[in-house]
Amino acid sequence: MKKLALFTILVLILFTCKQEHQDPTAFYMPGEFEPHEAVWFGTWIMGEWATDYKRVMSEVMKAIDAHVQIKMASPSDSIMQIAQKKLDSLGVDISKIQFFVMPGEAHWIRDHGAAFVVNHQGELGAVDFEWNGYGSLDWRVLRDSTILDSLEIFREKTRTIDRAKVDSLMAVATDAKWIKGNLTIEGLFKQAFPSRKIVFVDALMLNWHGGGIHCSTQQEPERRVLR
């Protein structure tokens, strides 16, 4: 019993020391299982599976609207009104939803929207990682340099620029501190795994065919014995 009490005191001391050395102004991303202030949704997807998308998203909204604030972004006022009518017809209580017009917005809001972070001073931050359309423009030009001056590339570039502004608009809508993401992917990995050697492999050819290294490999776990 004495050993248990001593161990508990030691853990508390270590935890307290760790807490004292934390910078209260430093932003971090909480786990998705932690309490939410709100859940953001993008506007409707268009195309052949739009009906299924709307049905699924409306069911998600109905499942959570009693527990958390729902916020929905649309690229224009007219599309927002269409979305409101559709949600209402699907049984969603739109009076519980906060709607925002954000030019450039689309359905995959986690991809191009703000990544929200917090600190221990009660502040909310919105990180801008300079979304670039999944790098698709660079890929297409690498594959065929003759399309550089095409109207298709111009339109895609315009859409990408507009969509890249959504995260800053979300920062304004939530009164969050706008934080410019200034680390490269390599820098992020080195920061996360400082004791490991980071090796980058150019997997672009796999990406062009719809996959990547993760899709092409499968880990076999090390055998373990509970002791």
Summary of the model, kept short:
Helix content is 41%, strand content 12%. It is an alpha/beta fold.
Order of helices and strands: HEHEHEHEEHHHEHH
What number of domains?
1
**Biggest β-sheet description:** 3 strands, parallel
* Strand adjacency order, main sheet: 1-2-3
Unreliable runs:
2-20
> Overall pLDDT, averaged?
81
Relative helix content: 40-55%
Number-wise, the strands total: 6
Helix-strand category: alpha/beta
Global morphology: globular
Keywords: Hydrolase
InterPro entries: Peptidyl-Arg-deiminase_porph
Organism: Cecembia rubra
GO molecular function: agmatine deiminase activity; protein-arginine deiminase activity
Description:
- With 227 residues, this protein is α/β, with parallel strands linked by helices.
- It has one domain.
- The protein is 41% helix and 12% strand.
- The protein has nine helices and six strands.
- The protein has a three-stranded parallel β-sheet.
- Strand 4 and strand 5 form a beta hairpin.
- The longest helix has 19 residues.
- The chain is globular and about 50 Å long.
- The two termini are 22 Å apart.
- The relative contact order is 0.11.
- The N terminus is likely disordered.
- GO terms for molecular function: agmatine deiminase activity; protein-arginine deiminase activity.
- This is Peptidyl-arginine deiminase.
- InterPro entries: Peptidyl-Arg-deiminase_porph.
- One of its GO terms (biological process) is putrescine biosynthetic process.
- Keywords: Hydrolase.
